[in-house]
Amino acid sequence: MTVTQWTEHVSTKRQRIAELARSQPELVFTSIAHLIDLEWMHVAWDLTRKDGATGVDDVDACAYARNLDSNLRALLVAFRSGTYVAPPVRRVLIPKGDGRKTRPIGIPTLEDKILQRAVVMLLECIYEQDFSPVSHGFRPGRSAHGALIQLDRAVRETGGGWVIDADIEGFFDALDHGMLRRFLDLRVRDGVIRRTIDKWLKAGAMDGGILRRSRTGSPQGGVISPILANIYLHYSLDLWFDRIVRGRTRGPVELVRYADDFLIIARDAGDAQGILAALSKRLGRFGLQLHSTKTRLVPFKQPPFRWRRENAAAMPWVEDPGTFDFLGFTHFWGGTKSGGWAMRRKTAKDRVARFLHRISDWCRVNRNVPIRDQHRILSAKLRGFGAYYAVTGNAKVIGTVRFRTGQIWRRWLSRRSQRGRMSWARFNALLHDFPLPRTRIRRLARRA
After folding, report:
1. Which of these, 267, 263, 265, 272, lies nearest to 251 by C-alpha position?
2. How many CB atoms lie within 10 A of CB 122?
3. Per-residue pLDDT tens digits for 215-255
4. For residues 10 and 40, is the Cβ–Cβ distance under 8 A?
5. Which residues contact residue 409 at a Cβ distance below 8 angstroms, ignoring those fewer than 6 apart?
6. How many Cα atoms sit within 13 Å of 76 on the Cβ side?
7. What are φ and ψ of residue 352, in 5° steps?
8. Residue 447, Cα to own-chain centre: how many angstroms?
C-alpha cells in the first residue's frame, strides 16, 4: 500500500471520529485505541520530524528507517498490549533570549515522538470539536497570525480600553497531573490511551546521568505536550471566561490565547480589575499562578482625535495610552492617514536583538565559509524572519533588520584575513552580486 493510500484511510477514520465528537459533545470515548493500526503508525512516522537530536537511546531516523515496518509493528504491539515503557527525555540547555541565559528542554526518543504523534492524531479529532475559537496555539489550521487577527478584532469591538497582559509562571512545569486526568475523564477514558499518557507524565528527564521525576508538568519536549496543555487551559481558563466572565461584565470583554500566552481586553476599567482579581483565584484552583511582575494591567484607551504623544506635555489631563507585547510584537495606537487611530504593531525590541545576536554568532562561526554559501544561509534566515514579522506597519523594522544584518556580515567578513577591514565600497560591490533579500510586507488576512 502506498503512503497516499495510508494517509487517505487514516484521514477517513479521523473524520468519522471528529464527526462523532462534534455531534455528541457529551460523549465519553472508552474504546478508540484500536483505531491506531499499522497504517496509522506509518502516517505518524511521516509526520515526525526526522532531523532532530536523538534521545537517551541515541537512535536516529536513518537507523530506525532501515527496518521501519518491523519497528513500527513492534511499537504498535507494545502500545496495545500495555508493555510500552516510556523512556525519560534527555534534558539539554539551549540559549534563551539574547544568549546570555539558558533554559532546559527535553528531547524524547524517536519512538516516543512517533507514538506521541499517533496519539495526538487521535486526540485532535475529539478535542478540535471542543476547543474554543479564542485558542490558537499548536492547533491544526491555526497560527500566531490567527491570534493577531483575533486581537485586531477584539480591540475594534471593545475599543481598546484595558488589556490584561497575563503570564502564567512556569506553566508547563506547573501543570497538575491529577487535574489533567480529571479533565481527560470528561472525554477520553480508553484504558490503553490513558495508561500511555500516564507513562509519559511519569517518565521524567535524564539530567547529567541523573533521572529526575516530577508530579507536575507536561512531558518535556514531547509532541503530546501542546495538546495536553490546551486541554488543561480549555477547562481551567477558556470555558470559565466564556461561560462565567462574559455574563458578569458591564462592557464587552475578549480573550485571545496562544498556548499559555494570553490577553484579556476589556472596555471598562472596573471589569478589567475585577477579571484580573478573579483570574488569579481561578488559576490558583488548578495549581497555576500568575507571574507577579510580568502580569500587568495596561491602559490601552484610544487617544483623543488628532492627539499625539509629543503634545502630552501641553495636555496633561489626557492619559498616555500604554503598549504591550504579544507573540513577538509590540502593540500600540498609531495614527491613520485620515487622522484617526488604529492599533499598530512592530517587532518587539528583544526579538530584534535576539535575531541579530544569532546572526552575529552564525557569521562569527562561519566567516571562512565561501561567500556564496554564507549568502544563501543569511538570505534564508532573513526570509524566515520576514515570513512572520513582515506585516503591515512593520516595514521600518524589517528594513532595519536587513540593514543591520548587512553590517554584521561585513564586520565578520573583515575578520577573514589579516588584510584589514572590508571597505563599504568592496562590500557594496559584493552586495551587487549577492544581494540580501527584501521582504514584501503583507497584510494579515481577515480570517483566523
Report:
1. 267
2. 22
3. 888 887 889 999 999 999 999 999 999 999 998 999 999 99
4. yes
5. 359, 363, 374, 378, 436
6. 20
7. -65, -45
8. 19
Beta bridge partners of 343: 333
Q: What is the pLDDT of residue 314?
A: 47
Which residues in the chain show pLDDT less than 50? 312-318, 447-448
pLDDT at 97: 57
Q: Mind giving me the DSSP string for 291-349?
A: -TTT-EEEEEEPPPTT--GGGGGG-TTSPPP--EEETTEEEEEEE-TTS-EEEEEEE-H
CA distance 206 to 220: 11
Dihedral pair phi/psi, residue 334, rounded to 5° = -135, 150
User: 389: left (phi > 0), else alpha (psi -120 to 50), else beta?
Assistant: alpha
- Quick check: 335 and 308 in contact, CB under 8 A? yes
**How far apart are alpha carbons 122 and 127 in whole angstroms?**
9
8 A C-beta contact, residue 137 and residue 240 = no
Alpha-carbon span 333 to 340, nearest angstrom = 10
Taking every pair of Cα atoms in the chain, the longest distance, rounded to a whole number of angstroms, is 77
How high is the pLDDT of residue 308?
54
Residue 311 has what pLDDT? 53
Q: In this structure, what C-alpha cell is assigned to residue 342?
A: 488604529
Tell me what pLDDT residue 416 has: 82
Under 8 Å between Cβ of 440 and 394: no
* AA letter at 420: G
| CB contact at 8 A, 264 and 275 | yes
Sign of the torsion angle spanned by Cα atoms 35, 40, 44, 47: negative
Please measure the distance between the N-terminal and C-terminal CA atoms of the chain and give it in whole angstroms. Answer: 36
pTM: 0.91
